[in-house]
Design a protein that fits this description.
With about 250 residues, this protein is mostly beta strands. The protein is built from no helices and 22 strands.
Length: about 250
């Protein structure tokens, strides 16, 4: 069983936070808070020790905040960005009723004291209902001289939507199979890294899904739940959390 320490605030008359440390005994004395662990005495709220670190256990220190954005509850929305009024960026996981997304902490950019980043969708590898999925057509010929970088040739122009980094799939007898990442593209051919995929046959129908990092549409749904994490052992402040959203038009 996982235990948590729950704190009560007289100021808000509620329970504002959970903590991962589990003391043996707690006591407040002379305006300081003390606890015992392993028979040792510890004073909390000290500036002389690392943050996110209780009882000298480095472990996997992290602070987390989970919340929900639910404006216009009966409207499907596109959530494009996350903004943080914070002294440091946080990593962020996104969950909606329709899909999921994420933001790595190093993707945030600081502007006028706040941090901003676009929401990237998670790899919905076989979700063909997404707008990022597009058909290509049937393969005319295959050059598999290099089995790790196979060239697929078509008898028509591929257009401008298909890009390097997109994920190529084939429809083999009604079964969708992952082929690989597109590493080179020409007007009528693509070269694909097939190291982790399955090489299709001539005549198979192919399609692609846009790269979720480079060309993400954010997260879509009625609501958005965000989960922030910060693993810094330094002092970090978080004042506000915001998002840029607009009505989704299918």
């Amino acid at each position: 069983m996982t235990y948590k320490t729950l704190t009560y605030s007289n100021g808000v008359e509620g329970w504002p936070s959970f903590y991962s440390y589990v003391p043996e005994k707690m006591i407040g004395m002379n305006n300081f808070f003390y606890s015992f662990k392993g028979g040792n005495l510890y004073r909390h709220n000290s500036d002389n020790v690392n943050r996110n670190n209780f009882y000298e256990d480095a472990g996997a220190p992290k602070s987390t905040i989970t919340g929900v954005v639910n404006d216009e509850v009966y409207t499907v929305k596109n959530f494009k960005t996350i903004s943080l009024g914070s002294s440091q960026p946080w990593s962020c996981d996104i969950v909606t009723d329709l899909n999921t997304g994420f933001i790595n902490a190093d993707w945030f950019e600081e502007k006028e004291g706040d941090w901003f980043a676009y929401i990237r969708r998670n790899n919905d590898l076989e979700n063909l209902d997404m707008r990022s999925a597009n058909g290509i057509g049937n393969i005319s010929s295959i050059d598999s001289t290099n089995p790790a970088a196979v060239k697929f040739i078509y008898n028509f122009s591929l257009g401008s939507i298909l890009s390097i980094g997109d994920l190529l799939y084939s429809n083999n007898s009604g079964t969708l199979e992952f082929v690989g990442n597109i590493i080179v593209r020409g007007d009528q051919d693509v070269v694909v890294d097939t190291t982790l995929g399955t090489i299709p046959s001539v005549g198979d129908f192919t399609l692609f899904i846009k790269n979720n990092i480079a060309e993400s549409n954010g997260a879509r749904g009625y609501y958005m739940q965000f989960h922030l994490e910060n693993k810094s052992t330094e002092f970090v402040e978080l004042f506000s959390i915001g998002t840029n959203l607009f009505k989704s038009y299918p």
